[in-house]
Amino acid sequence: MAGIDGKVVAITGASSGIGEASALLLASRGAKLVLGARRSDRLDALAARIEAEGGTVAWTRTDVRRRGDLADLVACAREHYGALDVLVNNAGTGPISPFDELRVEDWDQMIDVNFRGVLYGIAAALPVFREQGRGHFVNIVSTAGLRIVPNQAVYAATKNAVRTLSEGLRQEAGPDLRVTVVSPGYVGTEFADSVTSPTVKSQAPAVDFSLSLAPDDIARAVAFAIEQPSNVDVGDIVVRPTVQG
């Protein structure tokens, strides 16, 4: 099954940023969407926009820290469309900070959302993919895991954990399943809103976010991986602004 038209795609973290942009782009190319995020009002508004533009969409409130919510997301896809072709594990959070601040609760949050949430998504979708004899995981990670910098060690570690498990999953997947990792660089999203560290917030003006990529830039990478023929497994995509070091 090549292309995007008619594929059933579930997306976590779909209420804003990369998830929202991916939903809009994939819907415009004929995907049948199932959207998950914690903010129901944002999901409802996004679904209405997609439907107004002729797209097909369902949604369910999804907190990726809750395994049952991921099971419900996959069940929603099967209930509405009878199948699930792609799961985009996009939900993420980044309350980055120096180690000395000992923001252990923030560390736990990143582990629960960025890593455990992806595992829960795999646990929900993998049996369905095996039963169907087809399926595609698209896991959104980060260039933060490719170049480690101060304040971002825990965040980078969670993203690299997903990178590692994705490669292991790919090797176990066999010829019928696909696994793609997308590593965005600086993207203009709500990422900075999750930062709680005064140290990091004070440094934020030093970053010129006007030079960042748009969420649409990452959405096109997601679409590229999905639209390939079923025998083509796009393993790793890195998308950075040209100005990023």
Structural features:
44% helix; alpha/beta; 245 residues; single chain; 7-stranded parallel beta sheet; 7 helices
> What is the H/E order?
EHEHEHEHEHEHHE
Rg, please? 17 Å
Strand percent estimate: 15-25%
Describe the strand arrangement of the main beta sheet, using strand numbers.
3-2-1-4-5-6-7
What is the overall shape? globular
Quaternary organisation of the protein chains: single chain
What topology does this entry show?
Layout lengths: L7 E5 L4 H12 L3 E6 L2 H13 L3 E6 L5 H15 L4 E4 L14 H29 L2 E6 L12 H21 L3 E8 L13 H6 L11 H13 L8 E4 L6
Parallel strand pairs: 1-2, 1-4, 2-3, 4-5, 5-6, 6-7
Helix pairs in contact: 1-7, 3-4, 4-5
Write a brief structural summary.
The chain is 44% helix and 16% strand. By secondary structure, it is an alpha/beta fold. Strand 2 (32-37), helix 2 and strand 3 form a beta-alpha-beta unit.
Structure, described:
This protein is of the alpha/beta class and 245 residues long. The chain is 44% helix and 16% strand. The chain is built from 7 helices and 7 strands. It has helices at residues 17-28, 40-52, 67-81, 104-132, 153-173, 198-203, 215-227; strands at residues 8-12, 32-37, 56-61, 86-89, 135-140, 177-184, 236-239. The chain has a 7-stranded parallel sheet with strand order 3-2-1-4-5-6-7, sandwiched between helices. Helix 2 (40-52) links the parallel strand 2 (32-37) and strand 3 (56-61). Helix 1 crosses helix 7 (215-227), helix 3 (67-81) packs parallel to helix 4 and helix 4 packs parallel to helix 5. The longest helix has 29 residues, at 104-132.
